[in-house]
Amino acid sequence: MSLHHKGLYLDTKRVQVKFSDKSLISHKGFKTVPVLEDGDIWTGESLKIAKYLEEAYPDKPSLFGGKEQMELTSIINNILDPKILSILARIIVADVYKVLQPDDKNYFRETREKMLNKKIEDIDIESKKYITFLQKELNPFRRIIKDNNYFTGDKPMYCDYLLFGFFMWARNTSSKQILDRDDLLWHWRDRMLNLFDGFAKKSNGYEIK
After folding, report:
1. How confident is the model over 48-90, as pLDDT tens digits?
2. Neighbours of 171 (CB within 10 A)
3. Measured between alpha carbons, how far is 102 from 170 in angstroms, rounded to an integer?
4. Which domain holds residue 51?
5. Which of 31, 84, 116, 175 is spaced 20 to 30 Å from 94 by Cα?
């Protein structure tokens, strides 16, 4: 989404990195995706990539709207990322496991069960209660979006893409419905799905009912 925002996506080649084979990035010291290779420069982690794009391509539309907004987004990211990630993982981890390629399943089970301190199947049994927890954590974003199309006004910025990434992770791996149709965030997510000629909507994913 950030690459589209900057008008750079069409110049980008996407390469799959598997859980079971990280050789494409590990030789540069990276253990997780996303990783961006731009010429001789390699950058990892979504926020760091967005900041790199902002600084490397200042003539393109801004992802943050200025230096101060970039720092504020960093603070939001540090609060939001671990908290939402932890709750959402408990909602969809079993569904993610089911759609993985066979040679990735052992690695995923071993690492995720260690992180969450439970068997994947046992976590799935409790998944519905975590949807309720997620709804409470999302309330501040509902208040922000109440009078705006996006979090900073009429145009999406990186803070929108930040939260939207979690919803896309869920949409692409799980049939669980984590938002109701009358939810302000449901309508915001729909607007996000339709950005850039429906780019996100065209990705492999479950139908949003």
Report:
1. 999 999 999 999 999 998 887 888 888 878 877 778 889 999 9
2. 24
3. 20
4. 2-56
5. 31
